[in-house]
């Protein structure tokens, strides 16, 4: 609703072509985020898998501590755990870089939208008075809020989807085990 209102204000102040340019720049920024959001989802899944492996190995090590100490295998298992931890850290690093790219894209988006809009105004020869420029800048400020909230929303949606998928796999796994034990 806010975006429609802002585009209407731009249309009234600057005309049809600059408002369409602002809309297309906004859509471009939002669409360019789609591959990044998909990458975030995949990386979050990998992080969770690595975390599961590390926690499982840690738990197994703690349960078998007496045997490990008896045979002096502490350093071997420590190396295994550190390797699992490093794998998890590398996935987390990639995930955070992707989050940074998304944040950069959306923090730069208001500037991109205003540059494209004013560029179209200059090319078309639309008169830019101080009133129209200040009104347009205020309107871009209105557009900035929904655009800047989008990366966080996409990140939360990706994390939620991964969590729901994991819960579904867990529930299906339990149901399959129950069916397997009942049939025996």
TrEMBL record:
Q: What is this protein called?
A: ABC transmembrane type-1 domain-containing protein
Q: Which Pfam families match?
A: ABC_membrane
Single GO MF descriptor: ATP binding
InterPro entries for the chain: ABC1_TM_dom (IPR011527), ABC1_TM_sf (IPR036640), ABC_transporter_C-like (IPR050173)
From the record, give the transmembrane residue ranges: 20-38, 95-116
Query: ABC transmembrane type-1 domain: which residues?
Result: 1-159
Keywords for this protein: ATP-binding, Membrane, Nucleotide-binding, Transmembrane, Transmembrane helix, Transport
Q: Which Gene3D superfamilies match?
A: ABC transporter type 1, transmembrane domain (1.20.1560.10)
- Organism annotation: Ilex paraguariensis
């Amino acid at each position: 609703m806010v975006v429609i209102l802002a585009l209407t204000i731009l249309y009234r102040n600057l005309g049809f072509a600059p408002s369409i340019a602002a809309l297309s720049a906004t859509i471009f920024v939002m669409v360019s985020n789609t591959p990044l959001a998909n990458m975030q989802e995949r990386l979050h899944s990998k992080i969770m898998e690595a975390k599961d492996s590390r926690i499982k190995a840690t738990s197994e090590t703690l349960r078998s501590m007496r045997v490990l100490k008896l045979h002096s295998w502490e350093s071997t298992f420590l190396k295994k755990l550190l390797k699992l931890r490093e794998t998890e850290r590398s996935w987390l690093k990639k995930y955070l870089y992707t989050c940074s790219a998304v944040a950069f894209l959306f923090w730069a988006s208001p500037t991109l939208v205003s540059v494209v809009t004013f560029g179209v105004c200059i090319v078309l020869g639309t008169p830019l008075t101080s009133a129209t420029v200040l009104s347009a800048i205020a309107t871009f400020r209105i557009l900035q809020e929904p655009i800047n909230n989008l990366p966080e929303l996409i990140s939360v949606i990706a994390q939620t989807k991964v969590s729901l998928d994991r819960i579904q796999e867990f529930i299906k796994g339990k149901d399959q085990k129950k069916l397997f034990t009942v049939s025996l």
